Amino acid sequence: MDARPLSAAAAAAITGVQVGASIVATRFVVEQSAPASLALLRYAIGLLCLLPVVLLAGPRPRFAPRDVLPIALLGIAQFGVLIMLLNYALRVVPSARAALIFATFPLLTMLVAAALGAERLTAAKVLGVVVTLAGVGCALGERALARGGTGRAWVGELVVFLSALIGAVCSVLYRPYLRRYRALPVSAFAMLASVAFLAVPAAGEGFFGALPRFTGAGWLAVLLIGLGSGGGYYLWLWALDHASPTEVTVFLALSPITATLLGGALLGEAVSRLIWLGVALVTLGLALATAGIGGPETAPKPPTLGAPRRSRGVPRC
User: Is 294 within a domain?
Assistant: First the structure.
């Protein structure tokens, strides 16, 4: 395994941990803001972090006209639609159970990528993804099996699954654009589209009628969530450009592990007695699923994170 695949694995791992940490920070501040307003703040801060880097990184990014709408729709789906679906589901489904269902993300990504011919299914990948899913189940413990008390719980569970499916499809469909352009401008433009989309439901929540009312600790949590979202999304796309979708998304198994450990340490949440078995299984699953990373189907491309690229018929960006 050369340096680039190792860097892709590291970027995906950092993103998995960042998502888990953002979940805990969101739990801390969620009662201080409406869901769409909080999402808008999160991605607006992330966008503000990315834009200066994009403008200072070199020539102004230029997308081919045919690529503008698809990249925007991917950003809207991954940030706006996915997040709103999860926010709805968490009203009727316990968070641990939702996390377990959402942990099918890598499995769905693997199936979508195989169906679209984006990568080959291998026994090691399948086993690795299944083992990480089992590890997440162990880490969440009996809470993952507890159903919601409302009769609409099955609807919430279906919505969580749908959100995971949307994320899986987006992870696969991003790759053609990441081969034409650098990950940095793609991530910034996709996030810009999501901010524009989220402004509509946030306006309905009264976001633009008055300043958000957070405590000092709440503002700090929102700032950390936003900073993590901007940097984490860039690393996510960069990893997708240098490894297969399954090899990247499997690292999302680190997010419920991180959320469980941080939730127990910082928020006093219950931690399963099987947490360390879960950590061991997730580690084993990651090793199995990424054993071939950097092979013929995943190895590309530019020598550095910010390297520009050229594509036939597409302007340099």
Answer: no
